[in-house]
Amino acid sequence: MRKRLLLIFLALLLQGCDDGDIIVTNFDFEDAQLQQCGESSNYVFFKINPQVNQSISLNISTTQELFLDSGTQSFDLNSTGSIVNYRGFDDTVSSNYFCNPIPPISPRVILEYTGTSGLARLISDTTLDDFDGVEFVSSDELSQEGFGDFDGDGIPNYYDFDGDGDNVSTTQEIGDDPLNPRDTDLDGMPDYLDPDDDNDGILTINEDIDQNLNPADDITTAGGLPNYLDPNLTKSVVVDAYKEHLYNRTSDGTILIDNLVLESAEEQIIIESFGLGTIEQIRNETISITPEF
Ligand SMILES: [Ca+2]
Ligand SMILES: [Ca+2]
Ligand SMILES: [Ca+2]
Ligand SMILES: [Ca+2]
């Protein structure tokens, strides 16, 4: 980070000298936290240096959702859409200035550079998790908590909270010790990966007598186990739907701007590579999806 900033300072210095104009020595956002507001069609990312009442902001004009998946989304800066503004103010500036649809009258802008050229790269580091207690394994194996899809419902095991598709969540099936997951019928397949947990020939999903997509609440023997865990109870119904699945998505977002050209009425600043910053957990949300049976 320090190296990159030195480069920026160098760029500023050189440009200033070339033009024989004012050198902007205050361009310092290293310690400022990147913040975000706005939503689809106009996202605003900004940093404030309170010591000198300056800000740098990036407006991204797009209807795309940002930071959904791991990878990079690139946006060209131009005068009509996505744009960078480097501003100085005559007084303290707060996040309100950027997050209000109509900017407040005060503080007044006393220094203004506009960046209409460059490429903003939004880099997302996204994690999906079902928090089911099974440790992630980077593997395609069907029976491992990785990219395989054991039940073929379209959701990979690592964020499928019902990996075997029997409508009983893994957290309910795994037992007290995830390292030694419960295996009711002792057939070597833990319950969370066993579509017929009691090995009575009736699939767990079909031991859901009231067909409410929850076999765990079907208990024929008062005070006993649910039917799907009792091999002596073999009543079967046809269930052809999965219950709603929930998982969590978190994304850390980093923004880099390449070949940023900032222009004021008097001069031009060129920054080859500018790290605007990172927002950890710019997304942290629960997703619900009902897979097709
Ligand atoms: Ca699955
Ligand atoms: Ca299950
Ligand atoms: Ca088993
Ligand atoms: Ca069964």
Description of the structure:
With 293 residues, this protein is mainly β. The chain folds into two domains: 2-127 and 249-280, no CATH class; 131-246, no CATH class. Helices cover 9% and strands 32% of the residues. The protein is built from three helices and eight strands; from the N terminus they run H-E-E-E-E-E-H-E-H-E-E. Strands 1, 2, 3, 4, 5, 6, 7 and 8 form an eight-stranded antiparallel beta sheet that branches. A hairpin with a 4-residue loop joins strand 7 and strand 8 (268-289). The structure holds calcium ion (4 copies). One calcium ion is lined by residues 183-185, 187, 189, 191, 194, 197. One calcium ion (CA) binds at residues 183-185, 187, 189, 191, 194, 197.
What's this, in brief?
The chain is mainly beta and 293 residues long.
Q: Based on CA inertia axes, which overall geometry fits?
A: elongated
Overall mean pLDDT: 91
Element order: H for helix, E for strand: HEEEEEHEHEE
Structural domains: how many: 2
Ligand inventory reads: calcium ion
Distance between the amino and carboxyl termini = 49 Å
Main beta sheet: 8 strands, antiparallel
Kindly name the structural category. mainly beta
Strand content: 25-35%
Calculate Rg over CA atoms. Answer: 28 Å
So what's the oligomer here? single chain
Which blocks of ≥5 consecutive residues have pLDDT under 50? 1-23
Please estimate the helix content: under 10%
Task: Give the helix tally.
Answer: 3
Total beta-strand segments: 8
Strand and helix layout:
Blueprint: H1 2-19, E1 35-39, E2 42-49, E3 54-60, E4 71-76, E5 83-89, H2 96-99, E6 109-129, H3 170-173, E7 245-263, E8 268-289
One calcium ion binds at residues 149-151, 153, 155, 157, 160, 163.
